[in-house]
Amino acid sequence: MNKILIWVVVALAGFTLLVVIIFIMLSYLQPATSGQEVKQQMILDNENLIKNMMSARQSEIDSLRKEISGYRMQLIQRSGTIDSLAQQVNFKDGLIVQYRKTVEGLNREVETANKRTIHIKELAKTYESMKVAEMSPILERVDDRTVIDLYNNISARNRKNVILALPANRAALITQKIAQTAGTQS
Questions:
Q1: 8 A C-beta contact, residue 124 and residue 150
Q2: What global pTM score does this model have?
């Protein structure tokens, strides 16, 4: 047991000696600094850290400002494009309104022409049953277009009566008009 005790004392003495040697070496290697110097060094380190962080943040801010500026330019360009497209849409909407009015007018004209055609066909049936002497005083007072329409809607057998009911000069003019109309339809 004594041997163990001796070994423990020797080990403790060696450990103590080793701690003293390390302490002395540290004292020589690093000069002793006062608490004030440590605080100042920490403050300087903190200031440098803050400056570095602020510089990094400023770089990020500058980068973001450049991006925002780029987005603003894109927005301005796209706004111009949108305005141009809106003007085109408005112009084309106006054209559509005009075209609709034109189509409505043409539809009314077609409807009127269809009604006129129906009436002319009905009149043609009446004139087919009339004699030349009965038609003559009526056709003298009717315009050329109506005479031509009657002629075109009367049966081929009775068409000659329409021409015979007209004075010779007018019959010639209407015959020319009928021939021209037939020539344009071919």
A1: yes
A2: 0.47
Rounded Cα gap, residues 150 and 103, in angstroms: 28
C-alpha to C-alpha distance for 176 and 186, rounded to whole angstroms: 16
142 to each of 31, 134, 162, how far by Cα in Å?
Answer: 133, 14, 12
Phi, psi of 49 (to 5 degrees): -65, -45
Q: What is the DSSP letter of 141?
A: T
Q: Which two tokens stand for residue 143?
A: 């315009």
- How many Cβ atoms sit within 10 Å of the Cβ of residue 174? 19
Diameter of the chain measured on Cα atoms: 170
Tokens 């360009």 sit on residue: 77
Please give the Cα distance from 64 to 175 (Å, whole number). 87
> pLDDT tens, 124-162?
999 999 999 999 999 999 999 999 999 999 999 999 999
- Decide if 153 contacts 124 (C-beta within 8 A): yes
